[in-house]
Amino acid sequence: MNTHEQRFSAQDDDQPNDGKKKIIPDDFIIDHQCLIHKRILLLLTIFVLAALSPVYAQESHEMPARKNTIKIDLTSYWLYRNSVVFAYERVVKPNQSFAITAGYQQFPPLIGSLNDTIQVTRETSATGLKMGAEYRFYLTKENKYGAPRGVYIGPYMAYHNYMNKRSLEVINNGTPETTELKTNISITNIGFQLGYQFVLNNRWTIDLMLIGPSLSNYRFNADITGNYTFDPDKINNEVVQALINRFPAFEQLINEGEISDSGKINTWRGGYRYLFQIGYHFGRNENKRK
Hints:
The protein has helices spanning 32-52, 74-79, 232-246, 248-253, 286-289, and strands spanning 68-73, 81-93, 96-106, 112-113, 118-138, 150-172, 175-200, 204-211, 213-225, 264-272, 275-282. It is α+β, with helices and mostly antiparallel strands. The longest helix is centred in the N-terminal third of the chain and has 21 residues, at 32-52.
């Protein structure tokens, strides 16, 4: 399951929907094949531009003239709605650095029919966040220059949380009942990464985290509030099942036996992440001062 660290997207348009309304609007439906082609083209373009751009020469055993980089995470912007995530990287040794990440992102909207008797009429609130930390080792044997440029490896940790409230209409014995559905999704990833960072003109950075397997904990909780006469556990399970049916990430993650009677999920799985960030490299240029 992709986490971006984790990715939640609707199924492609060419998938049958059995006459049911889609959970999310068309503008949030991602064509996975097209997206892969775009990513490949983007990566090739980045490599070509980086190869043609002048770079700042620095011996791999020296501390860089500028030790700080502030970045914006474009992966979150592409995969989630209303996403603004920033990262800060600080070089601490000639070939080592640490980085922290923090920002805001929302889970894709859930609007429409979940099945014949359950309908999400509107979304009343949506919040979310991403936090993370990592430590990088820039490989001396592979890189001509020191951090923060070149091939790097190292551990990382990332945390995602999404909280949503939605108005829910349930047909119970032919009678519509209106309640509020609260969902809370949290994902914790602990993993190891391999990537490459370009530094252009000693100012601009392009950070590509290409391989990032992880051990990930997924937690999901659905809670129904209000006045109703139906069985809430049954509706909670219907909500979970709708997520499994409509979102490939959930379908790959959850087995039937792991869904509790109260609509809760708590499980560990292997995860994966990829990352694309652009940044600004700054700090005192000691070489110019001399």
